[in-house]
Amino acid sequence: MKEERVQQQLVLASSNPGKLREYQVLVTGHALELQLLTGFSQLPQFEENAPTFAENAAGKALYYSKHCLQRVFADDSGLVVPALGGAPGVLSARYAGLGASSELRNAKLLAELRGKQGGDRAAYFVCVIAVARQGRCELVVSGKVDGEILDEPRGVGGFGYDPVFFFPPMGKAYAELNAEEKNRHSHRGKAFRRLLEVLE
What we know:
The protein is α/β, with parallel strands linked by helices. It has helices at residues 17-26, 53-65, 102-112, 179-185, 187-199, and strands at 8-12, 32-36, 71-80, 122-133, 136-149, 165-167, 172-173. Helix 1 (17-26) links the parallel strand 1 and strand 2 (32-36).
């Protein structure tokens, strides 16, 4: 007789239903139920000011896990361009200033890389996911995708730096990938699949 898998609950430290939907697509077929953290927006916000993605993700998971009985997971992700000393890096969302649009961040990035060719345009996306339970960190996983920065934006899908990030295996910018392709190849998808392997 086949052993039935026990449904696990995992709470996302976010109030963003769009981010939750992205992760829910990845858990299809797995014995895992995802939900947003109840009352997230009423809690004092966690300051993501650590120098690494891993520290930010773990810190966020630990902080919000104290407000919840279930396992909590949090992520930190961004774009790294070695020729720019690792920028935008952990400041990916604030690269062009607080509240700046994706278009402004992309414009700043392209301006910084103007005149650079070949290996100087190499870049990678990284995502780190941490899981914590009631103030104790249980695991940290990561996913990475290599690519290069285009000379100008391409595509209308995705968000953030997707229009300027070229993904050689598909011959497309991230913003030109459909949802299924993005889930299969993205840094967030890779990190979350590793998380599922560990949990199961």
